[in-house]
């Protein structure tokens, strides 16, 4: 949790059914047992986002503290930004390679767009927050709200006893509770526990997403316990990963893709997209191709293909931006022809269309209602409900194959608990990334 102005870091999704299971104490810590396989994997996944190194090529990339990332300075860990439906979450909406490609393009959305003032708790167009960081590590298909790590909300999570460094295990979550419902809560992940020859814990490593980038901290037992006491933090343990995730499992969708995120990409030095590379665009949105020719090999033409067929060859004589808005959905590539007849490597992107239809007028808390949708060149993965009047009212609905074919999903009566404006996000998933479109609906008592 961050004191104002950071406020909420919980704008990721909660599960479809918020289980009111009481968090129980873990009877005894396992002082010497190695981390179980999924806990070890959680630490490895966290490292992918927390240890990546990148260097801005322009000085206009906004950061959450209100300033800008410094041009030419190397940073470790992905940037903090609660992008919601307005940007894209690293690891969930885009692969890590797409972010790294955007970093190398001085005219990418990282440097030309800011979500500050438009989206609460956000700055850069690509980013992560505390709950999306831990959700990525814990193999969720869609980010879980930070409050799901606390008591009285979820199955499969228990309070560790005693609340000490000696009881800590890899995969444990540190939860900072909110003061009021509208205040932010915060989550951190234990990713390493070091012990001496006698099996006593000597150090606990904690990783978290916070401004400016992810943070990794090694603490002595005394410092770790002081950290827990500050702001009434609690150490929780996910004892049953499948119960905690419910239907929100990464195995059911294409993202997160840990294997791909673990592979350092070769970034195109001749041209890059305004969204980086390896990325989908919503139909009707312009695609801005920055021909950079960073190696000075010369350029003669920009070749654009759709589904393997040339759709345009644009004469170019030097570096510059070529902007196109494509009316046809499909999988595209763009590459440069050089004066010597050689070709550059290609950027990959997709043009997709998402359509979301909600009931006219308002809907009722007490009655079932339906969301209708369709996608072109992108399968529909989920519908996400975001109740602006209820900080617990975050519901991702991962769609069944039957619902995808039908093009609609039923929102059951009683799922939403409070009246008010509800954001409905439609999430499509292409192999290159996810797209989101948002519509709002007013929910009443009757």
TrEMBL record:
Residues 1-23 form the signal peptide. It comes from the Bacteria. Keywords: Signal. This is Peptidase C51 domain-containing protein. It comes from Prosthecobacter vanneervenii. The lineage of its organism: Bacteria, Pseudomonadati, Verrucomicrobiota, Verrucomicrobiia, Verrucomicrobiales.
